Amino acid sequence: MKNRIRVFQIAFTYIGTIVGAGFATGREILQFFTQYGHWATITILLSTVLFIWLGTKMMTLSRKIGAKSYEDLNKHLFGERLGGSISLIMLVILMGVNSIMLAGAGTVFMENLNLHYQTGLILTMVGTFFILRKGIQSIMIMNSLVVPMMLILSVLIISQTMNTPGATRFLTLTTEHSLPSVWLAPLLYTAFNLVMAMPVLVPLGSQTGSARTVRWGGIIGGAGVGFMIMSAHFAMSAQMPGITQFEIPMGSIASQLGWFVQTVYIILIFLEIFSTFVADVYGISLQLQQRTSLSPQTITIGIMLICYFFSQFGFSSLLSVLYPLFGLVCLFWILRLSIFGISPSRR
Predict the structure, then answer these.
(1) Which H helix or E strand runs over 89?
(2) Could you list the residue ranges that cross the membrane (predicted)?
(3) Residue 277: closest CA among 218, 196, 208
(4) CB 207 within 8 Å of CB 28
């Protein structure tokens, strides 16, 4: 029974880490899948297979080598020097993405709860600090509460869409994009999100005693991510191309289910931002603990203060330069993980 509970904790943490703010708003799904019309159904299935295979492999390998942080896994895959360099690139990007996540939390408080922007930032940081005092276990508990709500909302959106005239449009939508861009999109999406999830998936795998538990957690988690991508694509396809005009397309769809569902959806957007922020701060702190002699609490506070500073200005100019580089690093990293052979454990 304890192993079964652990399986679902791993699966929910996997889903919650991948399903961040970009996923919740629908912009990522629209950009990487829905805009490619009927091809998206096939590419989502491809992405789901990759999430199951590579996410499970990442956690299994982390468990095998006893990785304390994602830097340990990078050095195991690429060697000491190149692995260390890749980890530093990831560190910079993760700090940037965390700054945007924090800014997003402040925006939710300001635009949807009529509270001050700084209130959202401070409450998010304070909540993160207290949650991280209990380590990976607190992250799993948080996602075990949030992810089931997200899955229920996905089912509601599917059931609502099935009653609309455009319910079958996900099978018939056309696209003007070239086939190379169609098939590159799921690879980029999967690579980017798996690398972004590394800070929490690596310690999650290494701190789980049973290899079987890790494998089933990865399988269920990867399948859950695929289900949520497909549900969002299904809903947005029914309202193409008009849905593209919205900054938060999934918010527009949720509003059609009534004020209660829309309110729950706003809360879930914040919780998804919050859970991703917590997970990334945790992963970064583990890496920095290996490089400094500072206490975990001091490192956590330092990371959040840096993110707070950049959240005042946005981080778009730096990310516009780093994202293309990060995209190449992600594809290179995923290719290396794909071809890296490990012997399966039977324990």
Answers:
(1) helix 80-112
(2) 7-24, 36-54, 88-109, 115-132, 139-162, 182-204, 216-236, 256-282, 294-315, 321-342
(3) 196
(4) no
**Inside any domain, residue 50:** yes
Task: State residue 48's pLDDT score.
Answer: 95
Q: Name the amino acid, one letter, at 43.
A: T
Low-confidence ranges of the chain (pLDDT < 70): 1, 20-25, 111-112, 246-248, 251, 313-325, 341-347
CATH of the domain at 95: 1.10.4160.10
Could you give the CA distance from residue 299 to residue 305 in angstroms, rounded to a whole number?
10
Q: What would the pLDDT profile of 223-269 be if each residue is shown by its tens digit?
A: 999 998 888 888 888 878 777 776 667 767 777 777 787 788 778 87
Tokens standing for residue 236: 């947005």
C-alpha distances in angstroms, 344 versus 56, 115, 201?
Answer: 12, 51, 18
Residue 310 lies in a domain: yes
**Per-residue tokens: 228:** 């949520």
Measured in residues, the chain has a length of: 347
Q: Which domain holds residue 172?
A: 2-339
Is 344 inside any structural domain?
no
Nearest to 191 by CA among 54, 42, 16, 28: 54
- Our count of domains for the chain comes to 1
Q: At what angle do helices 179-206 and 2-18 cross, to 10 degrees?
A: 140
Give domain status of residue 346, yes or no.
Answer: no
CA distance 160 to 66: 45
Q: Exposed, middle or buried: residue 10 (CB in 10 Å: 0-12, 13-18, 19+)?
A: buried
For residue range 83-138, what is the model confidence (pLDDT) as tens digits?
A: 888 888 888 878 877 887 787 778 777 766 777 878 888 888 988 888 888 777 78
Q: Residue 240, SS3?
A: coil
